[in-house]
Write a structure and sequence with these properties.
The protein has helices at about 5-15, 25-35, 55-60, 65-75, 80-90, 115-120, 130-135, 135-150, 155-165, 165-170, 175-180. Helix 4 (about 65-75) crosses helix 11 (about 175-180), helix 5 (about 80-90) crosses helix 9 and helix 8 (about 135-150) packs antiparallel against helix 9 (about 155-165). It is mostly helical and about 200 residues long. It has two domains: about 1-40, no CATH class; about 45-180.
């Protein structure tokens, strides 16, 4: 009785050969890029192309109406997107780092960097005022620089845009009002003093 190689069967069903023709050098990079394109979008469905957060926001036309922006944001309703929008628009999320640092951007293509914002967004809390006071500004700043240098160039610039709260300046269609209509519970309501 012979054993069946299931990887060959699965690869044949998927429409690709079981073994890449050239798995070294440039062939490996092309294979990895093709694999990256077969991933899911963080909030999307099967068959959609994986996108970085800066690509998601860059695809919103500057003159898009509010209904389009709301529908578009709900399509990409990943925890990363929601966390970035909360830091960018919520007045209770005060960034504790006084001046945003300079960093050396990686020259690696998307998908080959050390990290992606869809996983590194959890570090956003360490850059807010409460945690910066607890850890110290020097430690928070070094964490931010390390994070920026492991992200791709586009995502690093997007993270700086979020931390500087300049989303609307960079992406004019994405407004606080649209985000509040999209997810009313995401941004804290404005607290007025009594009286």
């Amino acid at each position: 009785m012979s054993t069946i190689d299931t990887s060959t069967i699965v690869a044949t069903i998927a429409g690709r050969s079981a073994r890449p023709q050239n798995a070294t050098g440039r062939g490996r990079a092309e294979l990895a890029q093709k694999t990256m394109q077969q991933r899911y979008t963080p909030g999307g469905g099967v068959g959609t192309v994986w996108q970085t957060m800066d690509e998601v926001f860059s695809n919103i036309p500057p003159d898009a109406d509010e209904k389009f922006v709301i529908a578009y944001l709900q399509k990409y309703k990943s925890p990363c997107l929601r966390a970035c929008l909360r830091v960018a628009f919520d007045d209770t999320c005060v960034v504790g780092i006084k001046s945003l640092p300079k960093f050396k951007a990686t020259d690696l293509p998307v998908g080959f960097t050390g990290a992606a914002l869809t996983t590194e967004y959890r570090l956003l809390a360490y850059f807010l005022d409460k945690e910066v006071k607890r850890l110290g500004e020097a430690k928070s700043l070094s964490m931010l620089v390390r994070t920026l240098e492991t992200l791709g160039e586009g995502e690093a610039k997007f993270l700086l845009t979020v931390l500087s709260k300049k989303i609307t300046e960079t992406y004019p269609a994405v407004t606080k009002r649209a985000v509040m209509k999209c997810w009313p519970e995401l941004i804290s309501p404005v607290q007025f003093p009594p009286g």
